[in-house]
Amino acid sequence: MNQSKISAIHHITAIASSASENLEFYEQVLGLRLVKQTVNFDDPYTYHLYYADGAGSPGTIMTFFPWEGVPAGRPGSGMIVAISFSVPLTSMAYWDERLTAKGIDVQRDSRFDEPVIKFRDPHGLPLELIGVTSFPTSVQWHESPVEPSQSLLGFHSATALVKSLDDTQGLLAGIMGMELYGKENNRYRFKMREAQSPGHFFDVLVDSHAAKGQSGSGTVHHIAFRTKTDDEQLNWRKRLIQGKFQVTEIIDRKYFKSIYFHEPGGVLFEIATDPPGFSVDEPLENLGASLKLPSQYETIRGKIVRSLPPLRTSEFQHEFWQPEKRLDDGQTIIPLHGTGGNEKDLIGISRRISANSAIISPRGKVLENGLPRFFRRLAEGVFDERDVVRRSHELVDFLVGAASRYGRSPEKLVALGYSNGANIAAAILLLRPEIFSKAVLLRPMMPLLNPPEGDLTGKRILILNGRYDEVIPKQSTGELRLALERAGATVEVVTFDAGHEITDDDIALASGWLSKGPELRLERAAG
After folding, report:
1. Which of 178, 171, 180 is CA-nearest to residue 246?
2. pLDDT > 70 fraction of the chain, expressed in percent and rounded
3. Given a cut of 70, is residue 519 above it in pLDDT?
4. 373 φ, ψ (degrees, to nearest 5)
5. In angstroms, rounded to a whole number, what is the distance separating the alpha carbons of residues 523 and 161?
6. What are phi and psi for residue 297, nearest 5 degrees?
């Protein structure tokens, strides 16, 4: 192990002014995977979004602080002024056409005998694609909208702008162990240790007259370099301090550990450990699916969630109804229909159950043989769990946004789900326990084989089963009940003489349960 040379770039963090626009561009245009949605450690009411290859590999990680509405910055001296990704040389025409078709201005260039496409993201961040013939190691994201043979291969390099080279080169070559690879005009390229890793080049532009950069939307906050272990990082810290650099203490960022310092030209550097990685708090297949918080903010999760804007802004076709203001009880019923239903199906039933509550009723976006559902299934009773997770978070984002637009309290959303709608309501309870204040589940199944350990303490849930229901396996409903109770919910189950259809008894039981509170005795529960 050569501890005297930095191996490659770990990640680059920039600033954006809209979380949803940022996600749309990096996921749907560039084809990167959202591998983690969390919050800024120092500002928990702002997202910290991480994009990467399919596995969240170091050297492919682009992260953002999307401060909503933050003014535009100005790249300049003391900053990273361009971020370059590697793509297959044969894909350059594809990317030129793809970006142009999406209304993005592109410029063609060449650098060190490699073709370059220059463009900017929606908030002005300078980006580049560089065609390469030797592919760095990265992991394909199989749900990427970009064809696998054309996809981004992680970082190629990053470009810093400084006024003088000498002291910066002293750090890069003398302390960090980079080698001067080449020079073109006022551009100096340094090469790092691991030539097969993405992001093993670092470019420095030297311009003694360059204006100082101004932080804001469309600028880079910092660049991080890789180190493999905690011990290596500790050695780097000691070496930098010996070189008279002001270095922070080691900071635990949950997914890696970090030290920070400014290089002589003013660019903020970080050295980050490869481990533990993004699967420390969610499995690889679900990376980025749900909001993960630093432990110190879990006690205010509800407040944080309500303050964050929806990430995915695609609307659900839906109906909204509210009672007269003098009769309004403040609750909002969220009817979730079964397979083949729509946004109108359960409105009448919802009003019978709780006449003085508002209603936000969405239609499921998935079509199965032309019939709307809330998530895909692979066979009867076999759910596509990745789709369950993704659709659950998408629906939550819509509900939070819709409640805000309609002036409804986000703390008084009540799920009323039937069949497939009951299943996605159950998934949301397990994945996003802060969303529903209570829930009525008519004919539900267990939607997740390995549900996360959420906290439903204080939440009330009513499950209504038909004794003669031939669609819903009783064992699956029992597993759901146990999972909800393990999460701390108070679950009441009523089984009565009915099949899979909704009956007047369902409506009466749900109405009585909602209006009379937890002391209500459900006399039909016996048997």
Report:
1. 171
2. 97
3. no
4. -140, 170
5. 74
6. -105, 0
Fold of 314-525: Rossmann fold (3.40.50)
- Domain ranges (residues) in the chain: 9-286, 314-525
Backbone angles phi, psi at 425, to 5 degrees: -65, -40
Sign, Cα dihedral of 462, 468, 471, 476: positive
Task: Convert the pLDDT of each residue in 401-437 to its tens digit.
Answer: 888 888 899 899 999 999 999 999 999 999 999 999 9
Per-residue pLDDT of 168-208, as tens digits, reads 999 999 999 999 999 999 999 999 998 889 999 999 999 99
- 368: which 2 tokens? 């199965």
Distance of CA 44 to the CA centre of its chain: 15
Query: Degrees (nearest 5) of the Cα angle 346, 352, 356?
Result: 105
Task: For residue 492, count other CB atoms closer than 10 A to its CB.
Answer: 18
The CATH number of domain 9-286 is 1.10.357.10: no
Those residues with Cβ within 8 angstroms of residue 526's Cβ, 6 or more apart along the chain or in another chain: none
Residue 144: count of CB within 10 angstroms of its CB: 19
Residue linked to tokens 């399919």:
54
> How many residues appear in the chain?
527
- For 375, half-sphere exposure in the C-beta direction (CA atoms, 13 angstrom radius) is 29
C-alpha distance from residue 50 to each of 26, 37, 233, 277 (Å): 10, 6, 22, 12
Q: What share of the chain is helix, strand, coil (3-state, %, to 5)?
A: 25, 30, 45
Q: What is the pTM of this model?
A: 0.70
Give the model confidence (pLDDT) of 313-346 as tens digits. Answer: 667 889 999 999 899 999 999 999 999 999 999 9
DSSP secondary structure string, 480-494? HHHHHHHTT-EEEEE
Give 422's DSSP letter.
H
Tokens 């970090």: give the residue.
258
* Span between the terminal Cα atoms of the chain, in Å: 68
